[in-house]
Amino acid sequence: DIERLRIAARVHDIGKIGIGDDVLNKAGRLTDEEWAVMKGHPIISEQLLSPYRQFRHETGIVRSHHERWDGKGYPDGLVGASIPLAARIIAVADTYDAMTTSRPYRPGLSRQIAVDEIRSGALTQFDPQVVASFLQIVDEWSKIRSIGSEDQTAKEPVSAASWSSS
Fold first, then answer.
1. Bridge partners (DSSP) listed for residue 106
2. Residue 99 CB coordination number (10 Å)
3. How far is residue 141's CA from residue 149's CA, in Å, rounded to a whole number?
4. Calculated CA dihedral for residues 121, 135, 132, 126, nearest 10 degrees
5. CB neighbourhood size of 117 (10 A)
6. Would you place residue 115 in the very low, low, confident or very high pLDDT band (cuts 50, 70, 90)?
7. Residues 2-36: tens digit of each pLDDT
8. What are phi and psi of 103, to 5 degrees?
9. What is the pLDDT of residue 155?
10. What is the pTM of this model?
11. How high is the pLDDT of residue 149?
12. Looking at the domain that runs over 2-146, which CATH code has it been given?
């Protein structure tokens, strides 16, 4: 269901509020202990959402968004189609966003590098059908994204005095 996917995508990382900024923004490689803390965020997300009836359909999706197609993901080690489809879609979109967005500790990667990495993760990290669908739309998605950012940037300065209240 598209609405469940939309809602789950918006709240999938809410559990990161339970992870310290020192771990979230660390520039270097995480220690084993820090990685164990980070891997807990899908469960924290589920725990935060589960008391609210309006999120009852999204909690399993949110919990599973770091599962891998090959079963090497977390928190439950789910394999293949046992991972909710919406979680498989969020995994690809989240990975693309994480790679292409600049972070305090590193610049974002190019669209092409991110696409190549996702393509190489089909059958291991990602559902190959989700990757195939993603690859079909990513070029169009990038165009839409750039149009949106252009629309938010004023072409020429506009003074408030030039606005009329009529």
1. 103
2. 16
3. 12
4. 30
5. 14
6. very high
7. 999 999 999 999 999 999 999 998 888 899 999 99
8. -120, 165
9. 46
10. 0.82
11. 59
12. 1.10.3210.10
Q: What is the residue extent of each domain of the chain?
A: 2-146
Picking from 58, 109, 119, 61, the residue whose alpha carbon sits closest to that of residue 85 is 61
One-letter-per-residue 3-state SS of the chain:
CHHHHHHHHHHCCHHHHHCCHHHHCCCCCCCHHHHHHHCCHHHHHHHHHCCCHHHCCCHHHHHCCCCCCCCCCCCCCCCHHHCCHHHHHHHHHHHHHHHHCCECCECCCCHHHHHHHHHHCECCCECHHHHHHHHHHHHHHHHHHHHHHHHCCCCCCCCHHHCCCC
Angle at 143 between CA 128 and CA 151, to 5 degrees: 140
Size of the chain in residues: 166
